[in-house]
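Example 3.2
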Amino acid sequence: MNDMKTLGQLKASGYVSKSVKQEIRENLIRKLRNNEKIFDGLIGYDNTVIPDMERALLARHNILLLGLRGQAKTRIARQMTELLDEYIPVIAGSEINDDPLNPISRYGKDQIAEKGDDTPIEWLHRSERFVEKLATPDVTVADLIGDIDPIKAATLKLDYSDERVIHYGLLPRAHRSIFVINELPDLQPRIQVGLFNILQEGDVQIRGFKLRLPLDIQFLFTANPEDYTNRGNIVTPLKDRIGSQILTHYPKNIEDAKAITLQEAERVESDLDITIPDLILNLLERVGFVARDSEMVDEKSGVSARMSISGYENIFSAVERRLLKNNETSGAARISDLYAMIPAITGKVELVYEGEQEGPYYVAMELIGEAIKDEFEEHISEPIQIFDTNPYFIELRSWFSSGNIVELQNDASQEEFNAKMDDIPALDQIIFDYIDHPQDRILWKEFILHALCEYNVLNKEIWDDHLNFNDLLANMLDDLD
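Structure, written as C-alpha cells:
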C-alpha cells in the first residue's frame, strides 16, 4: 500500500482513516487473539501491569504509569509503538502528519485545495510516531503547543495574525502519534492546565488564534508517587482527565529479580571464562529486597532495579580483574566479591536521617550482611539453636577459639583460595548436612563463614586488600588490650 504517491491513488485503494487509539485497539485485539506477546522484556508484570495496560488500551484511555524509579515505565511506553500500524499516509511536507483524508492544518488544507487528487503523500513508519518529553520546570506552553515565529513571518512577509506564522510545538507535531511525558509532576501546574483541552476535547489554542486543531494523540504519562518529591504534584483536574492510572511495582520474588538483572546487565566481551554462581545472584538480589525494607533507606524514594544491574556488572568486573592479575583464564565470583557492589549501592540508595548519620558505606555493609543472613536462613532454619547443638558447628567454633585465623586476600588465585578453605575443619560436613546439591563446595564454605560472622559467632575484619575470620571473643579481648 505504501507504493501510493498521491491522494487520488489513496482514495482509489479504499483506504479508511483511523484514530491512533483505534489503530492500537485493533492491533491489540489481533495480537490477543493470536496469543502474541504484547510487551517484551517485562518480567514479573504478566498478572499485574500488563493486563491493566491491555484493558486501558482496549478502552482507548490515556494512561498514567505511577511507580517508583526503575520499574520499567519508560520501557512500557516505548514498546507501545509496536501496536501502531506499520505505515500511515501523510500529506507530503506537513509539519503535523496531516491525514490526506482529513487534514487539520492550514498547510494540509491548502495543498488539497490547490492540487486535489494530485496532492503528494508520504508514508510514515510507526517508529517515527513516538514523541517523548521529559517534564522539567522550565518547559513552557510554547514548547508543548507552539508560538508565533517572527522569523517565519518576516521570511514569508506575513502578518502576525496569519495562521501560517505559527511554529508548532511538540504536541501538534505528535498528531496521529504516541506522546509520552515522563515525570509529569515536575511539569509546572500552569503547564499541566494547558493539557486540559487536549485531553478532553482534542484541540489547542495558540496565542489567541481562533483556530482549532483536533489533535489525535495517544497520551502516556509516567510519574513517581506524589509524596516522593516536593517538586510538584499532578493537578487534580488533569488526573481526572486521564482514563487509567496503572501502578507499577518492583519484582515480588528473587527469581524475577534475577531474571531482570541478567536481562539488563551489560555483558562486556572478554576472553576469560567468568561464572557468576546462582548463590551470588541470590545474594545480589536480596540486597535490593533488604534495602527496600531497611529503616535507613527512604522507602518513598525506592530502590531501583538498576542497583542490582550495576552491582552485577561490578561483581563481574571484580572477578575479571582478579583473573587478569593472576594470569588465570577462568574463575567464579566469591562471596567477598559482593563488596565490589558497594559503589552501586551507595550511588543508588537514598538514605533517611538515621542512614545519613551512619554513612553510606556502613549502610551498604549492613545491607549485604542482612542479605547473607536471609539467604542463610533459606537453607538452615533456627540457626542460633543449631550453632550450639550441631557437632560440626561446635567443632568449627572450637577451631577458631583455639587461635586459628583465616586470612583471605582479595586477589588470591583460585588455587590459594581453595587451599585456605580446605584447611578449615567441619565445613564439608556442614555443607553435606544442610545444603542441597551444592554446585560449588568452596563457595558454600566461604558463605558459611560470612553467615557465622553476621550471627556474631565469628568475627570478620575487612581491610583494603584482604579480610580475616577469627574468634569473636579473642578479638574482643584484643580490643580491650
